[in-house]
Write a structure and sequence with these properties.
- The protein folds into 5 domains: 23-124, Ubiquitin-like (UB roll); 176-195 and 206-259 and 278-341, Ubiquitin-like (UB roll) (Roll); 362-512, C2 domain (Immunoglobulin-like, Sandwich), CATH 2.60.40.150; 518-535 and 577-752, Phosphatidylinositol 3-kinase, accessory domain (PIK) (Serine Threonine Protein Phosphatase 5, Tetratricopeptide repeat, Alpha Horseshoe), CATH 1.25.40.70; 900-1092, Orthogonal Bundle (Phosphatidylinositol 3-kinase Catalytic Subunit, Chain A, Domain 5).
- It is 40% helix and 17% strand.
- The chain is built from 35 helices and 34 strands.
- The model is unreliable at 1-25, 192-208, 225-231, 264-274, 545-571, 838-842 and 1085-1091 (pLDDT under 50).
- Strands 12, 13, 14, 16, 17 and 19 form a 6-stranded antiparallel beta sheet that branches.
Length: 1093
Amino acid sequence: MECRCTESCSEAAVATGGEATSSSASGELWGVHFMPNELTVDVLLPNGIVIPLYCCRNFTLQTIKANAWKQARGLPLFNRMQLASTYVFVIVGRDGQVEEVYDESRRLCDLRLLWPVLRLIEPDGNVEERSLSSQISQAIGRPLSDLDESRDPELIQARIQYFRLCQEVCSARGRDWNEHLLRTFCEPVVAGDDRVVIADGPPPPPLPSPLLLLCVWIQPGTVGTPSVSEGHPHKITMKVPTVAKPSDVIRETLLRWGRLSNSARRSSSSSVAGEIDQSSYVLKRAGRRLYFLRDVPLVNYEHVTKCLGRGQRLVSVVLVEKSDLPEQQPAPAPLVPSYVKRQSTASANDDLAGAVCMWNMHSRLRIKIVSAYCINVSSFDAVYVNAGVFFGPDALCVRRTSPIASYALRWNELLEFDLPISCIPLSAHVSFTLCTVRPRKPKDEQHCPLAWVNLRLIDHRHLLIQGRVSLYMWPFGKDFDGMFNQLGQSGPNPSRDVPCLQVDFGCQQRRVRFPTPIQRDLFLAFFQKRHRERQAKKFHAGGRSCRRSSNSSYYSSAIGEQQQQQRQLRQPFPVISEEDRKFIVEDLLNRDPLHEIIPAEKSLVWRCRHFCQTLPPSLPRLLDAVTWTCTEQVCELYSLLVDWPVVEPDVALELLDVKYPDTYVRQFAVRCLDMRLSDDQLAVYLIYLVQALKYEPFLQSDLGKFLLRRALLKRAIGQRFFWLLRVELEHSPSLRRFALLLEAYCRGCGAHYLKSLVRQVNATEKLATLNAAIKDKKDDGTKLLWERLRQADYAEALQNLDSPLDHTVNLGTLLVDQCHVIGSAKRPILLVWRSEPTTGEPDRCVEILFKTGDDIRQDMLTLQVLRIMDNIWKSEGNDFCLTPYDTLPMGKRVGMIEVVKRSKTILEIQTLEGRIGAFNVGSRFTRSCAGYCVATFVLGIGDRHPSNIMITDDGRIFHIDFGHFLGHYKKKLGITRERVPFVLTEDFLRIIAKGADNVKKSKEFEQFQRLCSEAYLILHRQSRLFVTLFTMMLCMGIPELQKLEDVNYLRKTLAVDKTDPEALKYFNERLNEAYEGGWTTKVDWFFHSVKHL
C-alpha cells in the first residue's frame, strides 16, 4: 500500500480554516490555536500499514479506532492483527514527548498533537498500571516516564517512601471512613462542644435574635412521597431556634412535609414522621457539596454564623438522603507500581558497612576541577571556576581556579579548602560558578558569571560525596548580581544543552559517613568530660595563684571568686546574670529574622543556651549563635533539640527558612507544625510551606511527608496542594522534587478524584488556548468566545466539573450568553455557570475570571497576606471588613480569580451614578477603608486607580490586581506616578466624614484615624511573622520579590526596630502625607478616567 506523509500542520490549517498562532508550541496543533474542524489523520496500524482517515476534530479515539478497523478489513495483513481492544494509541505530544493514551473517550482536539499522526501498539507490562500512569501524567502535565527511566538511587528511594506513606494514609482513611467524610464534606464548625475550631478566626458575633429563619428545599421524590408539581423542588420555610440542631430541623421538616404531601394522614402527623427514618436524611448547604454532618447547634456552623454576621436572616439548606453523599464507600488501596515491586533491600546498606565516622577525619576538603565543555564564549575570553562551601546563605570557604583560554577548558586543578572534613556541617553544599574574564588591565578586568550549580557534600544516606561527577549547570538570571547563587536549589540541570562542569571529589579507602545518633552521644560524653576537666584545671590554677598572693585584700577577694567557681563547677549549667537574662527576654526575643547578631551576642546566647531552652521561641536566635563548623557545638545543639519544648507555628515557619538548612532542625520544625498547626491554619500557610520545600536538602523530606499526609486526609488542602505543586513545575529548577510529590498525591487521592483533577487540567488547557486566540483578535473577542464555548468539546470540558477554586462547588451549566471578554490589556475571560439549579438556591450563578499573561502567584501571595492580616485583626477583636477573594495560579502566567458578587469598580460607579451619590454606604466603608489603607501601606501596593478599587453593595471597599508591591511603583518617563504612601482620596474622606465641611476636625475622621492606628500597631507587633513569610518566598521567582532589599521595604513600613509609640508616630506621619497629597492621586485618577472613557 502507498504510504503518505502528513503535510505541514500550518499548511493544513490554512487549507482547512485553522487559525495560526504566534506561539508555535501552543494550541491544539503545532502552529495553530485550534485544530481544523475536519482534517486527515494518519493511523499507523500494528501490521505496519498507514491508513489516512478523514476525521472531525470532535472524534473520540474510540470512533477513530473503529473507523480504522473498518477500513483495515479490506487491506492486506489484516489477519495478522488481534482484536482492536488489544491495542492502544501512541501519540507525539506538543512538547515532542511520546505518550500512550489509554482513555479512548478523549477527543482528537484534546490530545494536543505535534502532528496529526496516531499509532496503534500492543502495550507492554501491566495494562492497569500503565493506564493509571497515563492518567497521572495527564494530571501533572509531565510524563512519568521521566521518573521511570531515572537510575538515581535517591529519587528511587524517595519515590518508594512517598508511596509507602500513601498506602498508610489510605489504610487509615479506610479504617475510619466516617472521619474522612467529616474532613471532606462537612460544613466547618466554629463553636460548640463538638466544634472544629477555625484557627485565628473571629469569635462568633452576638446573635441579634434567638430565632433563625430557615428555608429547607426538598427535591421531588427525596422523602418518598409524590410531588405536588412534578419536576420542581419544594421548600418549607420555618423559624427555628439558633440552638436547634440539624436533627431537630430534619424532624420538623419531615413532619411538615408529611402534612403537606399526604392529606389523608393530616390527623396523625406524628405517625407520619414515625414511618420515615429521619436518620436516613441529612441537611446540605445549598449550592455546595457541604453537609451538616455534626449534630451541633446550627449557630455553630460557619455558614450560618457568616450569614447572621452579614445581617442575612434567611438561610437556605437542602434536605437530601444520606445515600446521595459522595464517596459512600472507601476507595480501594492504591495500585502498587512496578518500581516498588522491584525494590531490592539486599544492597541497601552495602555502602554503609564499614564507613568511617566523619568526625574522626583529620584531612581537609579537596576538590579537583577537571574540565568544562559546551560553553559559548569568545575566543578572547579566559574562563575560570569559583568554588565555595556554604551552609545556607553563609560562606564557609571560597576558592577559585586559575583562568585559562576558552578553547581548551581543562584545568585538572586541585582546590584545597581551609575546612577539615570533620568540620563540614551535615547540610553544607558546594556552589560552583563558571566565569569569564576578558584580559585587560587588572583594574579594568570585566568578570562575568555564566552558569552555576549547587551540590550537597553529604548525600541522602549521610555519606560524604566521592568520585568524579558531571554537573550540568543552570544559567544565571537576567538581573542576578553576584558571583555565587548559593540560595539556588541543589542538583544539576536535567537539560543537556547547557554548560557542563566535570569535578572530582576524590576517593577514600572507605566511605565517610556523618556520625549516627549513637556516635554523637559518645562524642557528646567526650566533649562534656573534656569541658569538666578544663574547668577543673582552671579552678585549681586559680587556687594556686591565690595562695601565692601576699596581699590580704586581694587574697580574700580571690577566695570568694574561687568559691564561686567551685559552685559553678558543681552546677550542671552555668549561672547567667540578670542583665544577660533581661537582654535575652526583652531584646533578643523581639528581633525579626533579618536582624544582624554580632559576635559578642552570639557568644552570650551560646553561653546561655540552657536558659534559652526554657524560652522555646528563642530557638532561631540560638541557631544564629551556633558555629556550625565546630563539632562540639553542633553535637550539643542536637542534644538540646531532643528535649526542646514544642514551639508555636510562627517560630516553626521561621526554622524552615533557607538560613537553617540543617536536617535535624528542619525535622524539629516539621514535628512542631504537625502538633500545633490545624488544618485551617495549614490552608493559610500552605503556599509558604510549598516554597519551603525548595530549601529541603534532599528529595525526600519530613516537610514533604507532612504536607502529603495532610493533603491526602483533607480534600480542601489537597486540591490547593495539587495546583501549587503543579504551577511550580513551570517555574522552579526543583522539578523532580515537586513531580515526586504530585505523583504520590495522584496515587493516593483515589481514582474518582483523580478523574476530577484530570478534567480540571483539561479545562484549563482549553481555556488557555482560547484566551491566546482571543488576544490575537483585533476586536473584543466575545464573538469568538461564544462560538467556541458552544462547540461540543468545550461544552463537555467546561460543564459539570468541580471548581478548581473550591472542590465543594460544582460548575454546572455554562451560561454562554453571560460570558464575555474583559476589555483590559490581558483580555481575561469572565465565565458564568449555573451551579446546581435544582436545589433552589437563590444565587445560583458562579462567576470566575480566567486570566493569562500575568503571574497570578503575586496576586495569590498578596491576597494570602491580606487574609492573614484579617485573621490577626479579628483575633484582637477588630473586624476591618476585608474581602480577600480567592485566586489560583494554574500554570505559567495562567490562573483563575474569584469574582466578588454584587460589586463595582470606583470608575464604574463614578461614570454611571456620579461622584457623591455612588458612595451612599454605611460604616463598613470606614472600617474597610482603614483596613486597606494600612494593608496597602505595609505591603507597598502600587498602581492604585479607580479601576482596581471596588465597592460591594453593602459598602465594603476592597482592592484588586496586585501587579506591583513592596514599593515597586509604576513609572512614566522615569517619574513615579504615585506620590503618596497609600490611596486616601477626597471622595473617600467625604464619605467617612459623612459630608462634613472640615473633614480633619470631624469625629468620624478621628475615629477613622484611631482605627488605622489600631490596625497598624497590631501588625507592627506581628512584624516577625510577616518578615518570616516574605523571606521564605524569596525563592518563588516573583520579579518584585527576589532580594533581601525587597523584604527590607516591609521591615521599614512595619517599623520593626521601633517601639510602639515610635511606630505609631511614623505611621501617623505617613497618614498625613496621604491626606495632604490626595490631590496627586486625584490628578492621576483623572487621567486614568479620561483614558478609559
